[in-house]
Amino acid sequence: MKKISNVSIRAKLVFILSLTSIIALFIMSSVLFYTNIDNAKEDEIANIKQLAEISSINIAASISFNDEETANKMLAALNINSHIMAALIYDQNNELFAQYFHEEISLSKQSKLVINSSSLVLNYDVILLNNEFVFSWEKFDILVPINNDDEIVGILHIIANTDGFREKLENLGASLALAISVSLVIIFLIAYPFQKMFSNPIYELLSIMKKVPANRNYNLAQEMQRNDEYGMLFDGFNTMMQEFKHIEKELIIEKDKANQANQIKSDFLANMSHEIRTPMNAILGLSELALNFTFDKKLHSYLSKINNSATDLLGIINDILDFSKIEAGMLEIENNSFHLFNDVIDTVIKLSENSVAEKNITLCCIIDPEIPQFLMGDALRLKQVLINLISNAIKFTEQGYINVNIQINKFTDKNIELIFEVQDSGIGINPEQLNKLFKPFTQADTSTTRKFGGTGLGLAICKQLTNLMGGDISVTSDFGIGSTFTFTVLLGVQSKQTNIEIKPKKINSSKSNSINILKDKLILLVEDNIVNQMIATEFLKLVGIKVNIANNGKEAVEMAFNSAINYDAILMDIQMPEMDGIEATKIIRDRIKDIPIIAMTAYAMDEEKQKFIDAGMNIHIPKPINSKLLYKTLEDWVK
Predict the structure, then answer these.
(1) Contacts of 460 by beta carbon, 8 Å cutoff, 6+ apart
(2) CA–CA separation, 551 vs 24, rounded Å?
(3) Torsion of CA 597, 603, 609, 612, to 10 degrees
(4) pLDDT digits over 558-573, tens only?
(5) What is the reported pTM?
(6) Among the residues of 469-568, which ranges form H helices?
(7) Checking DSSP bridges between strand 522-526 and strand 546-550, what pairing results, if any?
(8) SS3 437
(9) Is the CB of residue 409 less than 8 Å from the CB of residue 418?
(10) Closest residue by Cα to residue 199 from 5, 8, 4, 10
(11) What tens digit of pLDDT does each residue of 38-96 get?
(12) Most-buried pick from 28, 165, 188, 328 (CB within 10 A)?
């Protein structure tokens, strides 16, 4: 039945019609065959019985006068019927009186026939009740009484083979087989076109159903007019198609509204990011510059607190923007090559060094040596999760340690699932608060929020990012003892691995290295905001860089094309009057292919960064300006 259920409806209809006809034909043929068997048997017995009765009348006198010779001669006349194998006459004492055997009957078979005949004659009364004959597939046994003057003087036993009967049956079977074969062909020839009455409307409807999604035409079935159940089906299909058409229109409208809302939200986030980062650039940049020239301890302390608070505020702003992008579905995970230690762990440790040193706690990182060095994934987002967890651990740990353990969970030729554990000896988390820890805008409790601050978005972002990277995050904690945050990520494994020996590096100040490398380089700063011009210029002069300033993109193009001056790099703002940074970059790139053009702007969202790269810029530095990042980027790109 399973095989039948998977074939086409046409095949099913032909099969059902043919099977029904075959069953009916088989039943009719069986009845006809068995009826003809009885008729053939009765005809054969009637012929032999008639011959036996005639012979018994002629033989009656011979038995009465005990004339065996005459009786044998009369029995010999039975050879006119080739199917009679033997004829035996028994007297009143059931003694064999005369006999006849067909010339082809052997002596041994004659003996067996006589023995069987004697046993039948003894049961003559029983046989008489059963129409005076015994039938088997091999022979007929017919017993006829021999009467003389209404007195039974003997019994005539005629034994005939069934060759004629079986020949009739064979002829009948052959005729029926031929009739059945012809009938099956006729049934199939009738069933196949007949099934089209049922299957064609269904196949026509299926064809229309396939065309509807491709053509978006919901009126294809309206021409199918019928007055039977198929007509009802088509009417229902038409009604459903019209409903789908109506629903599609509504969905298109709603989709357009959703796209517009997402675009508005995306534009709002981009604008908000830009507008917030612009004044933050002034606060962070000027406070950092002032710290370099302030020797009064109290004033230095004030400026340091301003700078730290601004940095914290920038972190909160970044969290809100990241969370908004995740909620809007605009954050995508990249899949690029990176070195686990050099590109992720080393950076995370360096960013955490100062905070760990201030609290006098230890930070230790242990990496399973079996982990391949070169992986595929989003190193930036992986760093973001680790920095967030380590920053939280530092925030809530007054003394003791923070341990980072990285182990293999699953490993194949192409993919690896890593387990990251960030364990601290901090204040721990109340068990009642564990379940809601990764929900947005929540922290362990309100007292924690008052004491340590924070938006409560960090862990929610970590959960979203780990999910996007094919993993998840969880936490275990003993209140008052410490916490362990565990997360997994699924990363690709590069086919070629190059062993890089990781050695301790002597860390010098970024400013000292940059002074040696960047001194006397000439940079074109393209910036329309006077405060931003001053901040960027001062940062660049601190490491010996010479700066020329263009107030907009138009001036930048003119100054870049000045053959008398060769710039080592261009720092390009984006939003400017007269000509923006993207248009200016495209014009400059048409003539100058090798000059590094670095976007330095408050536009910091990923999709915006890609626009800058597509326009011909080499890399992006977000505002507020991070002096270390600025120097490092210039070191990488300036020849």
Answers:
(1) 323, 438, 439, 440, 441, 442
(2) 99
(3) -40
(4) 999 998 899 999 999 9
(5) 0.49
(6) 510-518, 530-542, 553-560
(7) parallel
(8) coil
(9) yes
(10) 10
(11) 777 777 777 777 787 788 887 888 887 888 888 888 888 888 777 888 888 888 888 88
(12) 165
